[in-house]
Known about the structure:
Blueprint: H1 5-9, H2 26-53, H3 83-89, H4 94-104, E1 112-117, H5 122-134, E2 138-144, E3 153-154, E4 157-158, H6 159-168, E5 178-180, H7 193-206, H8 216-227, E6 235-239, H9 243-246, E7 258-260, H10 273-279, E8 284-287, H11 290-297
Parallel strand pairs: 1-2, 1-6, 2-5, 6-8
Antiparallel strand pairs: 3-4, 7-8
Amino acid sequence: MRLSVISTLTILIISPLLLFAAQYDSLKVEVLAQRAEHTVQLAYMVLWDYKVQSSIADTVRDPNNTGVIGIEYSPLTTTIGYEKAKELSTQAGWASWLVKEMIRRGIDNGDKIAVSMSGSFPALNIAVFAALQELSIEVKCISSIGASSWGANEIGLSWPEMERILQEKDVLKTGSNAVTLGGTGDRGAEWDETTKELAVNAVKRSLLPLIKNTKLKDAVKKRMRFYGNPDDYFCYINVGGGQASLGGGAKLRFNRGGWFEKPLPDRGKPDGVMDKFLFAGIPCLNLLFLEKLDNNERITIK
């Protein structure tokens, strides 16, 4: 993907959405958005090349050669995922939409964003980092090893390992600060000891510190200690269905994608990190249930 912004931007109609923040004019916003998309495409090229070199590339499973579509099942798979959702997450538009959303909501230099990522949607993880680094936003992020079907669930290529590759190739300059095992209780409770060892080895290869948890309540507490005061942040972004982020209980309470502004009326068992931020009055963006979110926001639909 090449950035031919001069020819395309001269015919843009100025949108009130893009003029929301005074420090950004429509031309600058579009340039930042296109650069974020370019970073995503570059990341796909790097990861696909890595898979080719490692003899794990699959053009049937990943016909667009993104490098971020995993397999249906591996020992690191935590839940059932949907191939269609994973494919949708790789489409152009997510990174540029994120750039424009942050600007629309008034983000400014010096703002901080708290982020939680699982391995379920590596394409969205890349889009988030690509968007936030274009905006020069300080990020504090916890990512997880565990992934649902078709996510970053291949042995040797979990999400933190993907991230390390992209940072070493200078594609991503923004990244995670710590990692958890993910899965049940944010500690891989559904895994046997052999799988836990595989996950711990993946953490070691990522070169990120591991946050160890004893149970879900402990995981939420340690994540909040890691983030610090929610009031220090512009917003909280959740990618995927991590228990510690969304809270416990049989019912998934955050059952739509998009922005949340107020705490939900029903409590989690326990409340998750997103609840904590909402109780503090900090808006939260949930990147989940992608098809409906895409339909509502027309992110990839042109």
